């Protein structure tokens, strides 16, 4: 396998490439949740329930990962309060998985969070997102007590960014 060129860029979540990959992300997590392909209406509802418009400075950041020049993944950072950020919308397209992109985008999100003034990053995830939980643990996130009552949250993680 040859080395692959990854590039990570901060873009607005409303741009066409960002909207397309956010729809793919939501389709995958909704389909996994339902145990069947999500309908277009279910994906639309999920996107409306979890908006991304605030993933821009100073309230957040949205990063798009490119692999060999093609959009391959995304990640969002949301400022929760001064010094505290949340990692969200971590996604690598299936054909790009297994090539180190997950670690790259999470590390890039941590750097973006620090630029926004965050000293600690937290996140929540579900039982069925096994690969995500493994990624977070490998990147130094520790499982912590629940910090929200999100209906989809089953695991909570936190990491000191200083």
Give the helices and strands, then pairings.
Layout: E1 6-10, H1 16-34, H2 40-49, E2 60-67, E3 70-81, E4 84-92, H3 101-115, E5 120-125, H4 130-138, E6 142-144, E7 155-160
Parallel strand pairs: 4-5
Antiparallel strand pairs: 1-2, 2-3, 3-4, 5-7, 6-7
Helix pairs in contact: 1-2
Q: Give the integer mean of the pLDDT values.
A: 95
The counted number of beta strands is 7
The oligomeric state of the chains shown is single chain
Shape: globular
Task: Please give a structural write-up.
By secondary structure, the protein is α+β, with helices and mostly antiparallel strands. Helix content is 33%, strand content 30%. Strands 1-2-3-4-5-7-6 form a 7-stranded mixed β-sheet, sandwiched between helices. The protein is globular.
Summary of the model, kept short:
It is globular, with a radius of gyration of 15 Å. 33% of the residues lie in helices and 30% in strands. It has 162 residues and is of the alpha+beta class.
Record keyword descriptors for this entry.
162 residues, alpha+beta, seven-stranded mixed beta sheet
